[in-house]
Write a structure and sequence with these properties.
Radius of gyration: 19 Å
CATH topology of the largest domain: Tumour Suppressor Smad4
Number of helices: 7
Distance between the termini: 21 Å
Number of strands: 15
Number of domains: 2
CATH architecture of the largest domain: Sandwich
Structural class: alpha+beta
CATH class of the largest domain: Mainly Beta
Order of helices and strands: EHEHEHEHEEEHHEEEEEHEEE
Strand content: 35-45%
Length: about 300
């Protein structure tokens, strides 16, 4: 087994490359295995590096995404489908929503990570890429896309996010979409937002899919119908804590089901957020792939 640590130097609030590299070196002083540290240089570089290593180096390999959900997305998309390859996470990012599905595990410790076990997880195939956690469209996807634009000019992530929320609250809240689940009609109207989930959490802790199980071979499909801005403000609390599915006052605006495959279409391109990464498409096909990812569970 060889271990590869792919560090995102801009993950979190400060560059942790030096301190994490030292932690990795110390952990391997008492662990007889080969390892390699790589610091990503630009968006997409982590995926490029992992894909190259998977193709050119023989033997069993574990790649640790050292960062947040964006780093995990890149590393996962570099290795999914390859044999004898595992994905681990060292949680140094500002947002690690996938890991919230495993609250009893410590994903920050390198020592626990390299002596951990493996668990097979489902993944979502989304057009030509993969999601390990949640795909979302609508209000929150637009907000995320705008936040990423503002972050290029504003240093404070919180300020950028708040500006993005305000912008999307004062503009058009909903748009018409057609959604099918397992080739059957599911929704065809104006929607506020929709999620297609393997894991339960996204957006820094919103429990969008409270019934999700990461290895059951099913995705959770949730659509929130178009609502007024006032109702949106009352809805958001239940949406964040995951209680909205059991709230009878919200049943009229929620469509929910489990499925193996979903198709989303609109007349014009719409924002699609895949594990925090932004795309603009007119048609999206999402299909659950059961137990396709070997994931590292740190030693307890």
């Amino acid at each position: 087994m060889k271990y590869y640590f792919v560090i995102n130097p801009i993950a979190g609030k400060a560059n942790q490359t030096e301190s994490l590299s030292q932690e990795i070196k110390l952990a391997f002083q008492n662990y007889p295995a080969q390892y390699e540290i790589y610091v990503s240089q630009f968006p997409g570089d982590a995926q490029r590096y992992v894909r190259e290593k998977v193709k050119t180096e023989l033997g069993e390999k574990t790649f640790f995404a050292c960062g947040g959900d964006g780093t995990t997305f890149e590393v996962a998309n570099g290795l999914i489908g390859a044999p004898n390859v595992h994905l681990g996470v060292i949680a140094i990012g500002s947002c690690n929503d996938l890991l919230k599905n495993f609250p009893e595990f410590d994903f920050r410790s390198v020592e626990r990570a390299i002596s951990g076990s493996h668990k097979l997880l489902d993944v979502l195939k989304v057009n030509d890429c993969y999601s390990v956690n949640v795909v979302n469209i609508g209000f929150d996807a637009r907000t995320n896309a705008d936040c990423c634009k503002y972050k290029k000019r504003i240093k404070s992530i919180k300020t950028a996010y708040n500006l993005a929320i305000v912008k999307n609250l004062v503009t058009k809240l909903s748009r018409k979409m057609i959604v099918t689940g397992d080739e059957k009609p599911f929704f065809a109207d104006k929607l506020l937002l929709a999620t297609f989930a393997n894991g339960s959490f996204y957006g820094g802790g919103y429990k969008c899919a409270p019934k999700a199980i990461v290895d059951d071979g099913l995705m959770e499909m949730t659509v929130v119908r178009s609502i007024s801005r006032i109702k949106f403000l009352t809805f958001i609390k239940s949406y964040k804590d995951g209680s909205y599915l059991d709230n009878p006052k919200l049943s009229a605006i929620i469509e929910y089901r489990r499925a193996h495959k979903a198709v989303i279409e609109a007349e014009k391109p719409f924002e699609v957020c895949i594990d925090g990464e932004n795309y603009l498409w007119k048609r999206v096909e999402i299909e659950i792939k059961n137990k396709q990812l070997s994931f590292v569970m740190p030693r307890i």
